[in-house]
Amino acid sequence: VTKPKEIPLYEWVAAAIGAALLAGVLAILVRDAVDGDEPPRIVIRVERVARAGDQWRVEFVAENQGDAAAADVVVRLEGAGADVVLDYVPGRSRRRGGFFLHEDPGGRPPEVRAVGYVTP
Amino acid sequence: MTPRLADDDRRFLVGLARAFGGAVIFALPLLMTMEMWQLGFTVDRTRLVIVVVAFFPLLVALSRLYGFEETASLKGDVVDACVAFGVSVVAGTVVLALFGVLHGDVASRDLAGKVALQTLPGALGAVLAMAQLRGGEETRADDGEVGYPGHLVAMAAGALFLGLNVAPTEEIVLIAHQMSAWHALALAAVSLAGAHAFVYSLEFRGQVEMPEGHHPFSVFLRYSVVGYALALAVSAAVLWLFGRFDDVSVATMARQTVVLGFPAALGAAAARLIL
To answer: Where are the beta strands (DSSP E) in chain A?
Structure first.
């Protein structure tokens, strides 16, 4: 029987770092798996209304406060008949978008809502 | 001109031509991916610079490990890595121009982004193709002198190559969203077991023998677990570069990383066999 070659310390260090990294990812996934899986709940917040050339830009943030991801989220600017579609809003995550208005919305903050989604 | 010089010149030109071939072959899947063109203008410039800079030592290490002994000086490897980058930039620009992707209406900033993204796989291909030509006898890798760091470099390169090829596609995001966390956990287990089997039990050419006298679990831990962790790290870096981690939850990041980690892990395993 040949004597096994001594394994250098740095190989064990690499193994430890690798195992720790893998354990970290798995821990996140396990926590995600046992945590709730509330369906998508999209909340829209208008961040800013600003002049953009001869138009006005309405910037919004769509936050999915549920756990499940939503696809093709339709966001509507009330009164203007304008829709924007966000391809994905993952659970507990945010996406940004905007509308262009031809008229000054004045002091009245524009009303932006999410009106629908599909599951990916 | 002495005959010897002419010989060197010829050798250099052949090497350069090979580098172009390697760059085009490795970069072609990405050059023909629409998402990659779009990423040209959306990709964060700071991140792009960080990734390209971090990528450079990998190129040098690849050239060092898989080049030939005769010309093996670190300086030569750095030069080769630089040449590989240059070749990759030219090859990517020419091919994108042929596809009509680069034209007068493309802003120079966008053009630079598109080309820079493509240099990563192209440079990998170029450096490997050049390494093939240098010298003529055995590479250090063939001598079995590569050792543990060499395996890590090979795995990182393999993970980057295969991971990069699928990373820009919309499907990575879609898959991550349509699977549950349990699916992701199962996929992680399959990736790790698959990568291990690839190297040690499927009897591919170049199969690695279990080192004698080492406990199989120790080999699993030092090679397969580390290789998978490398694949995950490379996947996370690529996803971060492509902006897939912006404003998403940690759980979503982990899922996407595991999804991309699947091809990356197999790429890492395959690279250990091939390189």
So the answer is: 42-52, 55-64, 70-77, 82-89, 94-101, 112-118
